[in-house]
């Protein structure tokens, strides 16, 4: 079985037929499935979609049970947590629905952890880190685009000279470089390459 465009988060099952891993959808399994929009809803109260998965959390005054349901709790109601809470040995602790969030100074609301600036996120060569609320993802560096080559997705250099996305002067030559381009005035002209006289 060969899948010409590849199966990003799945496996190739037949000619251009992808079987997506749980949490992903699309012809090439490249889109995140928003489980929170499914019927029946996967969470009893509130749902937060994450990359390839989801997290359940409860309204204030309820605590998240191991099976994902929300149980009423008088003690939780008194603490006034943003995303529900859990009771551990009689102590009430507020919860955050993602490892990319941490409890704020008040111990009740969750604040985002910027994985890109703390160095917790590791992106492969040619990719840059983009922080999101509660998580992060890796995106191709500027001057590169995501392409399916030799059986996998890679960040490939964009040839600005071929795609005509350069800003070289009419009397200049465009030279492609890794992740960028350069402009050189043609013979008989002088200047920066962006301006030639």
UniProtKB/TrEMBL annotation:
Main location: secreted
Keyword Phosphoprotein: no
A Pfam family recorded for this sequence: EGF_CA
Subcellular localization: Secreted, Extracellular space, Extracellular matrix
One GO process term, biological-process aspect: cell adhesion
InterPro entries: EGF, EGF-like_Ca-bd_dom, EGF-type_Asp/Asn_hydroxyl_site, EGF_Ca-bd_CS, Growth_fac_rcpt_cys_sf, Nephronectin_domain, NOTCH1_EGF-like
Record domain EGF-like: where: 32-71, 112-150, 157-195
Descriptive protein name: EGFL6 protein
Native source species: Rhadina sibilatrix
